[in-house]
Amino acid sequence: MKIIKRETLKQKPSPDTELGFGRYFTDYMFTMKYNVEEGWHDAKIEPNEPQRFDLGTSIFHYAQGIFEGMKAFIQPDGSIAVFRPEENWARMNRSAVRMCIPQFPEDVVEEGLEELLKLEKDWIPTKPGTALYIRPTIVATRVMLGVHASTEYLFFIILSPVGSYYAHGLEPTKLLVEDFYVRSAIGGTGEAKCLGNYAASMKAGEEAEEKGFDQVLWLDAKEKKYVEEVGSMNMFFVIKGEVVTPALVGSILPGITRKSCLQILRDKGYPVSERRISIDEVIEASENGTLDEAFGTGTAAVISPVGLIRYKDKDYVINGGKMGEITKMLYDTITGIQYGKLEDTYHWRKIIK
Ligand code: COI
Q1: Which of 128, 218, 301, 340 could bridge across to 228 with cysteines, CB 3.0–4.6 Å?
Q2: Residue with the nearest Cα to atom 9 of ligand 1?
Q3: Are 46 and 180 found together in one domain?
């Protein structure tokens, strides 16, 4: 892999810095280009510097772009582990199909990521709960205003040392059930990790924040009846001892942490169900005392307990506003595997040597 070195390195945040999420970026990035004549080409690692783009570039106008979120962790023996990267590459290529972006070679980007991580190893934070967040992205780069798929693309991977996604860390989140705005409809782009999904969610997110909530809990677009996801997390509920998560009906992101949690739960013998779950069922369970726990899962959010949901102006406190037992078991198992504290029986850690 070609590596273009930079002359001076950036100042790294000190080990005590409150990293937050996505505020600091490392020295280097991986890039690769696409055009019709050459396909994907010119894969390299280069300094992560501000870029210049013509303002007619199609990504600025029609958001033809996709991304992923992954994390790298320092292991007890000093090596680097990435959590299930092959799952992210496969999902990114599925998102590419939905957004008319050409399929990329997964082996080339994996090699690029591994080289990049080796070069940036000193940026991986080691304080508990921190990691190096990996953001692979593809954007349409043809300069053109017609509404058509671009014929040129840029693939890049940037890295950011992060702490917890929520400012309040592992404190249970408060969610506002959104019954006006919608995130995605069946046939839309909800199951692709495309840029526009996140832009479309911001208005509801801002209104929820103004009311003191962390995030919005989305309902299905057609009936505003079934729980979908949170936008940065998939949702799980524990009702009468059964762990329920909304089925992937086409408008929900197929989360990799979600998939990992389902496997852990099934292997440990918990009753698990992937099905449509209505907000009325959740509210009824809360009212009759059978909603034991609720939590969200995601790369950035890891496993986040949900302590309260508001629906139609009424607040429902879950598990006394505290993290529940199953939530804690999943948090400990997932992070134990990620940080190399538990045996990796699933082979989810990709060790970069
Ligand atoms: C992730 O969890 O990695 C995400 O992409 C969600 C959000 C930060 C956009």
Answers
A1: 218
A2: 232
A3: no
- What atom in ligand 1 is closest to the CA of residue 22? 8
In a domain, 315, yes or no: yes
- The amino acid at residue 254 is P
353 falls in which pLDDT band (50, 70, 90)? confident
CA 309 distance to own-chain centroid: 21
In the chain, the N- to C-terminal Cα span, in Å, equals 16
Atom 5, ligand 1: residue with shortest CA distance: 69
Nearest CA owner, ligand 1 atom 3: 69
Domain end among 116, 138, 162: 162
Q: How far is the CA of 301 from the centre of ligand 1 (A)?
A: 7
- Indicate whether 149 and 287 sit together in one domain: no
- From the CA of 165, give the closest atom in ligand 1: 8
> What range defines the domain where residue 134 resides?
2-162
Q: Check pLDDT > 90 for residue 168.
A: no
- CB-ligand 1 contact for 230 (6 Å cutoff): no
Q: pTM to 2 decimals?
A: 0.97
